[in-house]
Design a protein that fits this description.
The protein is 34% helix and 25% strand. It has a seven-stranded antiparallel β-sheet.
Length: 355
């Protein structure tokens, strides 16, 4: 067990290095020179023109000085990001083709190699009430994707005891939705429950599997097919037609085309695991998107996660067959630590941000 943990930590530092490759040269050198132990705990790299470089280490800001040394205190000597460095980083994130990434930029972020997410902040250009362009980018937030083999353990124990079940994972940003889906794919397709389920991951933005050049960088199991960069609706339909999956897993579902494809999958007897954004039970139940998804019959349970301070921790499970509360809520910090604490105590955990 000890050797396994060390291997996982090393792999996480490699993920940090891969994410740092999009930084401008001087910033990249500073990031890559950090100790491996620090890299394993970094969740975000935050860049703002004229402001200090900030690394988020398990929720706590770290500031780099001119030599690249991290500190928990911002000082006059803290390293500032120049406008030229921010522009260079933005161009590298876009592969020097901003126009080809405009849809993603308008959506607020670009997925970079390794499944990492680069959030983009600038000035919106609108037309007819819709955003058509983003100019004058002045802030970038690179969120480091993580892979942890315990992330979906509680989910499997509580929802998949009797075999496959349709599950909708809901939570606020940084609650670990994508990380949990990734580990769920691995567990179900690798025979950990006694059967090697056929899993299809529809990975529209390459965040679950982190595909790069045809290579799947995250472990999603040995009996899993990844539909990289497919729009979710089209990816679901392709998987149904050609790969006869037992379960289809996808992130941030909810568009009309997605829902129609899910309905087709239900009629074919396929189970689904997907995620939606919702910070509370009340917010989840009030969303029209949730009602529409629940009406498909594809989901047996909705799983509400805690906040980013307790990543991949289940707050409650709601039965969607009659909207009955399946498990009690964990309202106190002690209960949250108890329900998901094993994950937090064993691993230098960081959930995929925005997930």
């Amino acid at each position: 067990m000890y050797g396994t943990v060390i291997k996982m930590e090393y792999r996480q530092s490699e993920r940090f290095d891969l994410a740092a490759e999009v930084l401008s040269p001087a910033l990249r050198r500073m990031a890559l020179s950090l100790p491996r132990g620090k890299k394993e705990r970094i969740q975000e790299i935050r860049l703002r023109a004229g402001s200090p470089v900030i690394l988020i280490e398990q929720g706590i800001p770290l500031f780099l000085d001119e030599r690249g040394c991290p500190s928990y205190i911002c000082r006059e000597t803290s390293r500032r990001v120049s406008p030229a460095e921010l522009t260079d980083t933005f161009n590298k994130i876009c592969g020097y083709s901003v126009h080809s990434h405009m849809d993603s930029i308008i959506g607020g972020y670009i997925t970079i190699p390794g499944g990492h997410r680069a959030g983009i902040c600038g000035t919106a250009v609108t037309q007819g009430g819709k955003i058509v362009n983003i100019r004058d980018v002045h802030a970038i937030n690179i969120r480091i994707a993580g892979e942890y083999r315990d992330a979906a353990r509680e989910l499997v124990d509580r929802v998949f005891r009797q075999g496959l079940a349709g599950v909708l994972i809901a939570g606020p940003p940084a609650s670990g939705k994508t990380t949990m889906l990734r580990d769920l794919a691995r567990r179900l397709s690798s025979g950990e429950g006694g059967r090697y389920y056929k899993i299809a991951v529809v990975d529209e933005r390459d965040e679950i599997a982190g595909t790069r050049g045809g290579e799947v960088l995250h472990d999603v199991g040995i009996n899993c097919d990844v539909f990289s960069a497919y729009p979710k609706g089209e990816g679901i339909m392709t998987a149904l037609r050609a790969f006869s999956p037992d379960m289809i897993i996808c992130d941030e579902i909810g568009g009309e085309a997605d829902i129609r494809a899910v309905e087709c999958g239900v009629n074919s007897g396929v189970r689904f695991a997907a995620s939606v954004h919702a910070a509370s039970r009340e917010e989840l139940l009030a969303r029209a998107q949730f009602s529409r998804l629940a009406a498909t019959g594809a989901f047996d349970r909705a799983v509400l996660l805690a906040d980013g301070n307790h990543p991949c921790t289940i707050r409650e499970v709601i039965s969607l067959k009659g909207d009955r509360l399946e498990d009690s809520r964990h309202d106190s910090g002690d209960d949250l630590q108890h329900s998901g604490g094993a994950i937090l105590q064993r691993l230098p955990y960081q959930a995929d941000q925005g997930a």
